[in-house]
Specification:
This protein is of the alpha/beta class. The chain is built from 17 helices and ten strands. Helix 8 packs parallel to helix 9. Bound molecules: ligand L4NQUYV4. Pfam families: UxaE.
Length: 436
């Protein structure tokens, strides 16, 4: 184990520095405010789970929207771990990294789990191109897809019985869609290795290709993973875009049995080429699919959450300072259509009653923070209210009055927030445990 040397200013002496988690089942507790870690720790401790935690986890996108920086995210988590006298291993996820500067800033702050996001180089329209369009576009990416002929005409039979046929159109589509993205991911992974090795620090890499409109096919997964591994990427987990809808802040939308079959196939690729873990992004509240994920991967999974801890922070406001919560709902509605960009959500403002039309505070909480146990009196269970609040997190947290007011509410009711999170994530962890 490379001794981790992270800056004293972010490490409380008794708390172990973040380290590699390897292939252990793991769970990311993203915290957009910096006050959620006590509740996350309580959830892990109460559950007695063997699932390894990542407490410091934020994407560059989240940090940008909340005006936080990597050292602040690390400091908030480590200080909470110190306060809880945490002595076990834990990871730290620098999420959705796109540039060498993203790597440098997060590595310097002590992160050890680096999630590479090459989505800016993925041709999202590739799934709709005709063969003729693919052939034409392939000429522009041929140099990035030197692997093309290695797969031509080949097929692979997975341990699940599924067969992957690398026919020419499949290869053309994979090359046009991911050719440049694979190259860019390998380049960033090499930079991560250089930075961390030079500093004598641990590191492990996740590759995220989950933020695409269409699911990642088995052929695409196979090519992406094999090329990255051949290039020496220290791949501990990969996040494909799974079938169904994995939207922010709400449960899985789709046929869970079909998803489980697909997960078995993706897990078979990870086992054959790696092994590495399958990673579930937007993992918040996806309770209905958790047992399937744990079963299909035989425990080789990573689940990443963040939005749900923010929504549960708003639950504290809803309970303790309902007028503040009402204002946050109003402001979130004002911001939603702008802030929803880059997020996969279905909610439309018109489908959710405005706060002014929900006179009772309980109704307001039921509509905007509905969860699996919400008793709905004809309000409809669309979870759309959750998505409106979820996407506007940055606007609210950086609002000159609402942001400080929400933080003040949470620091005035720390036990309320911790208890709500402990219960909420207790359900998440026990759902995963069912499949282990
Ligand atoms: O909002 C974000 O940028 C993060 O929450 C990001 O989406 C993360 O990878 C995630 O999926 C957490 O659920």
């Amino acid at each position: 184990m490379i001794e981790n040397k992270i800056r004293k200013s972010t490490v409380t002496s008794s708390v172990p520095a973040p380290s590699e988690l390897g292939l252990a089942p793991s769970f990311g507790f993203g915290d957009r405010i910096g006050l959620a870690t006590p509740g996350h720790i309580a959830a892990v401790r109460n559950s007695g789970t063997q699932i390894a935690p990542i407490f410091a986890q934020q994407s560059i996108r989240e940090m940008t929207r909340t005006s936080r920086d990597p050292r602040g995210v690390m400091g908030d988590a480590m200080n909470a771990l110190g306060g809880a006298k945490w002595e076990s291993s834990h990871g730290a996820d620098a999420d959705h990294l796109k540039t060498p500067d993203d790597v440098n800033r997060t590595a310097e702050a002590g992160f050890t789990f680096f999630t590479i996001d090459p989505s800016d180089h993925v041709d999202q329209k590739a799934d709709d191109y005709s063969e003729a369009q693919l052939r034409e576009l392939f000429e522009q990416v041929r140099d990035s897809a030197e692997w093309f002929d290695d797969y031509r005409g080949k097929s692979v039979k997975l341990s699940t019985g599924a067969e992957i046929n690398f026919d020419e159109v499949t290869l053309l589509r994979a090359a046009v869609k991911y050719g440049v993205a694979i190259r860019e991911a390998i380049t960033l992974a090499n930079h991560i290795r250089h930075v961390q090795t030079e500093a004598g620090r641990d590191f492990e890499i996740e590759l995220s290709v989950d933020e695409t409109d269409q699911p990642t096919t088995l052929a695409e997964h196979y090519i992406i993973a094999e090329q990255c591994l051949k290039a020496g990427m220290k791949l501990v987990s990969l996040a494909p875009r799974f079938i169904g809808e994995l939207e922010k802040g709400v449960d899985y939308i789709g046929d869970v049995a079909a998803l489980e079959a697909s997960l078995h196939d993706h897990a078979a690729i990870a086992e054959e080429l790696g092994p590495y873990k399958l990673s579930l992004h937007s993992g918040s509240d996806k309770i209905s699919m958790y047992p399937a994920l744990a079963r299909a991967t035989r425990g080789r999974f990573h689940v990443k959450t963040a939005g749900t801890s923010y929504l549960e922070a708003l639950r504290v406001a809803a309970v303790c300072e309902p007028e503040l919560f009402r204002e946050i709902c109003d402001y979130s509605r004002q911001r939603y259509n702008t802030d929803r960009a880059t997020y996969h959500v279905h909610a439309e403002l018109e489908t959710v009653p405005a706060p002014a039309d929900l006179s009772s505070d309980q109704q307001l909480q039921d509509v905007y923070l509905e969860r699996w146990e919400t008793v709905r009196d004809g309000l409809g269970f669309t979870e759309a209210g959750r998505q409106i609040l979820h996407c506007a997190f940055g606007s609210v947290l950086t609002h000159d009055r609402l942001g400080p007011a929400l933080r003040s509410c949470l620091t005035s009711h720390p036990d309320a927030y911790s208890d709500i999170l402990a219960e909420h994530f207790g359900r998440h962890l026990s759902a995963l445990q069912q499949g282990l």
